[in-house]
Amino acid sequence: MEDTQSKFPTLEVTRRTLIETGATALVLSSLPRGALAAGSDQAELSQVSIDLRVNGNLHHLTLDPRTTLLDALREHLALTGSKKGCDHGQCGACTVLVEGRRINSCLTLAAMHDGHSITTIEGLAFGQDLHPMQAAFVEHDGFQCGYCTSGQICSAVGMLAESRGGMPSYVTADLTRPAAKLSDDEIRERMSGNICRCAAYPNIVAAIKQALGEQI
Ligand code: FES
Ligand code: FES
Predict the structure, then answer these.
(1) Ligand 2 pocket, 147 CB below 6 A?
(2) What pLDDT does 1 receive?
(3) Does 141 contact ligand 2 (Cβ within 6 A)?
(4) Which of 43, 92, 94, 134 is the most exposed place for a label (fewest CB within 10 A)?
(5) What is the tens place of the pLDDT at every residue in 1-58?
(6) Do 147 and 64 share a domain, yes or no?
(7) For the chain, what is the domain count?
């Protein structure tokens, strides 16, 4: 009888190889063109060159393609206002605005934002004048230790833009009518991705309501 096993060797796919292959494919597929340099037979990962416009200033960066946007801002541009709380997308301390939309910068690769405009907490103020959201947080004591605050403020600015754009939330009662006025429940739900270990939530909601009144 013919030995079929020797003809068709068993392909061993373990859970580990599956996860590793998937993770590699995810990283490679997210890189801009030019991030891969052809080797002899195999493509090798190399440095990637990108342009980021951060707070109005253009930066040309050459990075390991695995660098997160948060690390690019903090470690390469010395913009340490955005905080690393969990590095897993769970706390919101790293929230920045990319093309006006809030994003957890720890969960995205810098290489995915080549050519994008990014606003961090350092870029919200107008010269010496605080952004109205910053001023409202100061006025209402929307913080204690302050570690979550830059993420809270950037998130709140992005959240108000979403709301004004008619984006509903999980607690929006009437989806046909965008909320013109955000209730406390709406604000809490829309800000639920930003955790405050000091539990300054009532003051944060008060600050956002004041800023909302100022029509940012
Ligand atoms: Fe990004 Fe916590 S550091 S969500
Ligand atoms: Fe301390 Fe929010 S002010 S974690």
Answers:
(1) yes
(2) 44
(3) no
(4) 43
(5) 444 444 434 444 445 544 454 454 455 555 554 455 444 444 456 999 999 999 999 9
(6) no
(7) 2
Residues 145 and 193 placed together within one structural domain of the fold: yes
| 112 within domain boundaries | yes
Pairs from 197-202 (Cβ < 8 Å, separation ≥ 24):
197/145, 197/147, 197/148, 198/143, 198/144, 198/145, 198/148, 200/141, 200/142, 200/143, 200/144
Whether residue 132 contacts residue 208, with contact meaning beta carbons closer than 8 Å, is answered with: no
Note whether residue 33 is domain-resident.
no
Domain with residue 146: its CATH number is 1.10.150.120
pLDDT digits (tens, 9 = 90+) for 196-211: 999 999 999 999 999 9
> By the 8 A CB rule, do 120 and 154 touch?
yes
Domain that holds residue 209: 126-216
Give pLDDT tens digits for 31-46: 554 455 444 444 456 9
Q: Are residues 101 and 166 in the same domain?
A: no
Residue type, 73: L
Nearest CA to ligand 1 atom 4: 89
Strand, helix or coil for residue 98: strand
Q: Which ligand is nearest to the CA of 153?
A: 2
Predicted TM-score (pTM) of the model is 0.80
* CB of 85 closer than 6 angstroms to any ligand 1 atom: yes
Say yes or no: CB of residue 104 within 6 Å of ligand 1.
Answer: yes
Q: Within a domain: residue 69?
A: yes
pLDDT for residue 40: 43
Among 212, 32, 6, CA closest to 116:
32
Measured in Å, residue 156 CA sits from the centre of ligand 1 at 16
For residue 201 and ligand 2, the question of a CB distance below 6 A is answered with no
Same domain, 153 and 97: no
CA of 28 to the centre of ligand 1 (A): 23
Closest ligand by atom to 92 CA: 1
